[in-house]
Design brief:
Strand order of the largest sheet: 3-4-9-6-8-7
Strand content: 15-25%
Distance between the termini: 90 Å
Shape: globular
Number of helices: 27
Number of domains: 4
Length: 856
């Protein structure tokens, strides 16, 4: 009769973990015990006990692994030694790791921001084949390029071009949303059925179907919550208001909210058939650019060929005096391309300047922190030179010593990584505000950003630990045993690193001061009109009688000086009698526009409501128009401009240039007139002083005349400031980066000077014995480092001047870099550096010479 056998996997496990010299004995004893238990207590009990005994043998793994894998033993010893040394020098080590943690935190946040910006729209499955229609129009070598499409392009081009696989128009709509008895402003978006395939819309319930019924909509998850639409669509209607008429729409699907890193974030999607019903005239015009249109091309289709076919079809169906061509803009290019506009449902514009500056600050802060660590580490490791020498005497090789210090650098970087999470928690709200994002701490724990943080930690290990490890592993054994703790001769690399730190610090400080100076210049520049105490109310008004009533009622309020109602600034072109094509901006205004805005009339007269032709045949132009047309006496000249029914007006006045757009672009030729069919939607109200009571009175009049639409207003001063939001954010980021860079640089200088001073304490003692005063000692050692600092700040200020002068030239109106910025940047960094050097020399200057000379 065959003996019972224990589980074979347990036997094999025992053979792997048990040392060879005792394996036969242990295996035999366990097998005998298994047979006896099988006979007396049963098979199940015997197997259970056998497996338990095998697991109990795991205590022998430690012996076996350590005897066969000495590398693991050494690694374990490196970590243990490193932690013990960090604890022994916990004062310096805490400061060192804190500096490294700050560098990791700043670079980690920069990585999050830059990665987030470059990930925009790239996560869609068909993103690499999806494009937006763009167009170019103009004369000569510099045509105007703009993004947009007409309804007819989105209809006909996919039908006639085989390479277009999916297509969807996309346009904004503006309604009032009714929630119970309250009304809110609600932006909606029109789309075609292919939209949901192009952008991978994830429906939680329902779906879009063919998406042709104008009485149906699909909404986002957050919108459903806001309007009280249950997740099961048991109640599936929302009420929207347009032109004072309420309409009920059936909700046929609820989709998951679009992520934050996308250029489109629709809350309510409506079929384009609804827009077509209300805009029949615009559905038959080929070049009526008023929406976006997305195409997804089939695999392998040439973009250039599709662009050519699009242009050919357009030219076959419409005639143009200018050179016109259609093109395709990649979906992933929209977010960071400043040349093509956003709008019509595309938002969240990014900026390459902000990305570049954030990346530079992150890289610089990490580099400075790693340099700090290297200099601190070298200074701290001086006390371990005898330890290194003894290791070598007992057979340790250079590679072993090198590995030991690299592992210690990794340990410090690992601790700094954990500490950086706390730093990020503190500065994340401020950083999110600067970056105009909605970041929370949890974002860094996503897989992508967590891997980025680990990558930064490993990079900091290399940057921070390589130099000390190489230096100490190559240190001569005899010098270490004799206690000659002088490293590296002239120590040129350490000096270069300190110089680099202050080069970076003065570069960031000078750049920040230049940004601050230019931003203040932009905000205080004379833009040609007075935005102080000027309120802008957004309310489209077409009826003249309604405009006059609203205007007169506002003027009846105490504290209101003037009221004007105008359109926005459109762009168009016209051909002169000489055949020259002229591109201008134009706007429809009223008789009180110039006075309300505080503009200066240089020639001629203002509009007069008593002169009938001022409404049909008169215009006022700006200085830029007169200069561009080369007019000596513009007043009285008839121009060939026409827009709708308004045609061939006569110039009655010339207004001083005013910046109706930001100072990012020069003032363009402008025509102001009172006729035409442009919708007026900007009501400008000039008040004596802003106060809550007056705004409540204005709101009461508005609500009485335009209910249920709520009052929508801004302060013109805020509108002007918002034009320079990018510069403001860059200024804040660079200011924070400059302060951190200077602090880290001073910490690095502290480590470097401290290392040098500790090597020369006997020298200082001898100088004191022979009569040197503290001031003389300070001057002597300051001279050793002053050249390094001057070299760093001169290099940094030169690089800052070269880069910032190029940046300033992007503005038509700008400040100069200036000697003031140079002087303040250099002097500030030098003063802080000198104080740092003094703090390290102070102890040496006050020491008792006997302590370091008693052996002599």
């Amino acid at each position: 009769m065959a003996l019972p056998k224990p589980p074979q996997w347990a036997v094999r496990l025992l053979q792997r973990i048990c040392p060879t010299e005792v394996l036969e004995e242990v295996e035999g004893d366990l097998h005998e015990a298994f047979v006896w238990r099988h006979k007396t207590r049963g098979a199940a009990y015997a197997k259970r006990k056998y497996i338990w005994e095998v697991f109990k043998s795991f205590h022998q793994v430690k012996i076996k692994v350590k005897t066969q894998h000495s590398g693991i033993m050494l690694l374990h010893n490196y970590f243990k030694t490193g932690l013990r040394f960090l604890w022994k020098t916990r004062g310096y080590s805490t400061l060192n790791i804190l500096g490294l943690a700050i560098g990791i935190a700043i670079s980690w946040l920069a990585f999050v921001f830059v990665t987030d910006e470059y990930s925009f729209d790239g996560f869609y499955e068909k993103a690499d084949r999806t494009y937006r229609i763009k167009a170019s129009m103009g004369f000569g070598d510099k045509p105007s390029i703009f993004a947009g499409s007409s309804y007819l392009m989105g209809e006909e081009l996919p039908r006639q071009i085989a390479g277009i696989e999916l297509s969807s128009r996309y346009k904004s709509g503006f309604f009032l949303g009714k929630i119970d008895r309250e009304f809110i402003n609600q932006v909606t978006h029109y789309a075609d059925g292919d939209f949901f395939d192009i952008f991978d819309v994830n429906f939680l319930i329902g779906g879009a179907g063919t998406f042709n019924d104008p009485s149906t909509v699909v909404i986002s998850e957050s919108t459903a919550l806001r309007y009280g639409i249950p997740a099961d669509l048991s109640s599936d209607e929302i009420t929207l208001v347009l032109d004072n008429e309420e309409a009920r729409f059936k909700v046929i699907g609820i989709y998951r909210d679009f992520p934050g890193n996308t250029s489109i974030r629709p809350e309510i999607l409506m079929p384009f058939s609804l827009w077509a019903q209300a805009n029949q005239r615009r559905t038959t015009i080929w070049f009526d650019i008023n929406m976006n249109c997305f195409f997804t091309l089939a695999e392998g289709v040439s973009v250039n060929e599709v662009e050519q076919q699009m242009t050919d079809i357009l030219l076959q169906n419409d005639e143009f005096e200018a050179d016109v061509a259609l093109g395709l803009q990649p979906l992933t290019d929209i977010h960071l391309n400043p040349e093509l506009r956003t709008g019509n449902g595309i938002n969240a514009r990014g900026d390459n300047q902000m990305i570049l500056i954030t990346a530079i600050i992150g890289a610089f802060c990490l580099l400075i922190a790693c340099v700090n660590y290297a200099n601190f580490a070298v200074g701290n490791y001086l006390v371990r030179l005898k330890e290194v020498a003894l290791r070598k005497v007992f057979g340790a090789e250079k590679t072993g010593i090198f590995k030991q210090f690299v592992v210690e650098a990794f340990t410090s970087s690992f601790l700094a990584l954990f500490l950086s999470v706390g730093i990020i928690y503190i500065i994340m709200p401020a950083f999110a505000t600067y970056a105009n994002k909605s970041y929370e701490l949890s974002v860094i724990f996503s897989q992508k950003f967590l891997l980025g943080g680990v990558g930064i930690m490993l990079l900091s290990t290399v940057l921070a630990g390589l130099y000390p490890a190489l230096l100490l592993s190559r240190f001569k054994t005899v010098a270490g045993l004799k206690g000659k703790a002088r490293l590296g001769g002239r120590n040129l690399l350490s000096k270069m690193l300190v110089t680099l730190q202050f080069c970076i610090a003065v570069f960031l400080l000078a750049s920040m001061l230049t940004l601050n100076k230019q931003l203040n210049f932009l905000l205080n520049y004379d833009i040609g009109y007075n935005g102080e105490n000027l309120v802008r109310i957004f309310r489209p008004i077409e009826e003249e009688s309604l405009k006059n009533t609203f205007k007169n009622r506002l003027l009846g309020l105490s504290g209101i000086q003037n009221v004007s109602i105008a359109s926005g600034f459109n762009g168009t072109d016209y051909r002169t009698d000489e055949g020259e094509q002229v591109i201008v901006r134009h706007a429809r205004v009223d008789t009180d526009y110039l006075e309300t805005m505080g503009m200066e009339l240089l020639q001629g007269r203002n509009f007069d409501p008593g002169i009938a032709t001022d409404f049909t045949k008169a215009c006022i132009v700006n200085e830029a128009f007169v200069k561009a047309r080369g007019m000596e006496n513009a007043v009285g000249t008839t121009i060939n401009f026409s827009y709708g029914d308004f045609s061939k007006p006569t110039i009655i006045g010339v207004v001083k240039n005013f910046n109706f757009e930001s100072l990012h672009t020069p003032v363009q030729p402008l025509i102001l007139y009172m006729g035409g069919y442009l919708t007026t939607y900007d009501t400008h109200v000039k008040v004596d002083a802003m106060n809550q009571a007056l705004m409540e009175q204005i709101e009461a009049i508005h609500n009485e005349m335009f209910a249920p639409y709520p009052l929508n207003y801004t302060l013109v001063e805020d509108d002007i400031a918002n034009q320079y939001e990018l510069e403001t954010n860059i200024q804040k980021v660079s200011r924070g980066g400059s302060i951190i860079a200077i602090v880290l640089s001073c910490m690095g200088l502290m480590g470097f000077v401290g290392t040098q001073i500790r090597q020369r304490l006997k020298e200082v003692s001898i100088r004191k014995v022979v009569g040197a005063r503290a001031r003389q000692i300070f001057g002597l050692y300051l001279g050793k480092y002053l050249l390094l600092l001057i070299l760093g700040v001169v290099t940094g200020i030169s690089v800052a001047y070269w880069i910032m002068q190029g940046w300033l030239n992007n503005y038509p109106e700008h400040v100069s870099f200036g000697m003031g910025i140079m002087f303040f940047s250099v002097s500030s960094v030098l003063v802080v550096a000198i104080l740092t050097i003094y703090s390290q020399l102070f102890k040496a200057m006050r020491l008792n010479p006997v302590k370091y000379l008693k052996e002599e």
